[in-house]
Specification:
alpha/beta, Multidrug-efflux Transporter Regulator, Chain: A, Domain 2, Rossmann fold, 3 domains, 5-stranded parallel beta sheet, 3-stranded antiparallel beta sheet, about 55% helix
């Protein structure tokens, strides 16, 4: 992927005049460097950051070294999912990054990218690891590639106002793929204006209680994996849920493996099967000042 572009290349990629692009550069909207001869050069990273923040359409992604957006809807998702899986398997981080950014720059919301493309990827990775098709070091490499890409998306999203509601969360199991899930939740909520902070994965329930008491977030999300000792889990969880209810913290749980029996013993403000559901709940919560009751 090229590192720097001329103003003409970027203008063509964005579908604007060269004069307009230079005005944006002069205003500091897109970072610019000068060659020895005094010519402008635009870092690709700076152009991407501008696109993410402004929402301006990218008409010629190929000029930025990205695959052309020649598919739409489900076809685009399926194509990108296959490309992402191949890039992850081959350890090609640059290809993985390009495909992910292309979807985002094409106008897809982060939660839709995660729900429609990444959910299947994570499921296939979990299955491959469980069957021994992926070695532990390979899994860790894949996880780090995804996390770096999520970190890049997060940094390029508009900064939430200091007065925005705070959402925090974590994964309580020691599964690095759950760490990816909690990072996706972080990015999805930040995209709609929440201040967010992910505590990562393998966080004990007792520590979650401490965080809620000390920081008092408006919302706390928990991604949960397999439970080895259900009675002990329910006991610790109930204590933590009571703390959330007392403090008026909305407690959101997401999990793909919890049994119906366990869920029936748990209290929460919302149980979300998808990031779309979680974002919808967060929008409703932010619009209301009334504490959300626990259920069931």
């Amino acid at each position: 992927m090229v590192k720097h572009l001329t103003t003409r290349q970027v203008a063509m990629a964005l579908g604007v005049s060269d004069a307009s692009l230079k005005r944006w550069c002069d205003k500091g909207l897109i970072p610019t460097i000068r060659t020895v001869g005094g010519h402008r050069r635009l870092p690709v990273s700076g152009v991407i950051q501008y696109l993410l923040k402004s929402g301006h359409p990218l008409l010629r992604p190929d000029l930025l070294g990205m695959p052309p957006a020649n598919a739409t809807g489900n076809m685009a998702i399926e194509r990108s999912r296959n490309l992402k899986l191949r890039a992850l398997a081959e350890g090609d981080e640059e290809a993985f990054r390009r495909v992910g950014l292309n979807l985002f720059l094409a106008g897809m919301r982060a939660r839709d990218i995660f729900d429609k493309a990444f959910a299947m990827i994570l499921t296939e990775l979990e299955l491959a690891f469980a069957q021994g098709q992926i070695k532990p070091y390979q899994q860790q490499r894949i996880v780090q590639m995804i996390q770096r890409w999520l970190g890049e998306l997060r940094l390029n999203l508009p900064r939430p106002a200091d007065t925005s509601a705070l959402a925090m969360g974590c994964a309580m199991n020691g599964d690095p793929l759950l760490g990816v899930m909690t990072s996706m939740i972080d990015v999805s909520l930040r995209e709609i204006g929440w201040r967010t902070e992910s505590l990562g994965y393998d966080v004990p329930l007792a520590e979650i209680s401490d965080v809620m008491r000390d920081v008092r977030p408006r919302l706390f999300w928990i991604a949960i994996g397999g439970i080895s000792d259900p009675p002990a889990f329910i006991k610790d969880y109930d204590r933590m849920a009571a703390q959330a209810e007392e403090l008026g913290v909305a407690l959101v749980v997401t999990s793909r493996v919890l049994s119906r029996e366990l869920r029936q013993q748990m209290r929460y403000s919302a149980f979300c099967d998808t990031l779309g559901h979680l974002v919808g709940f967060a929008r409703t919560l932010r619009a209301s000042s009334v504490p959300v009751e626990m259920q069931p």
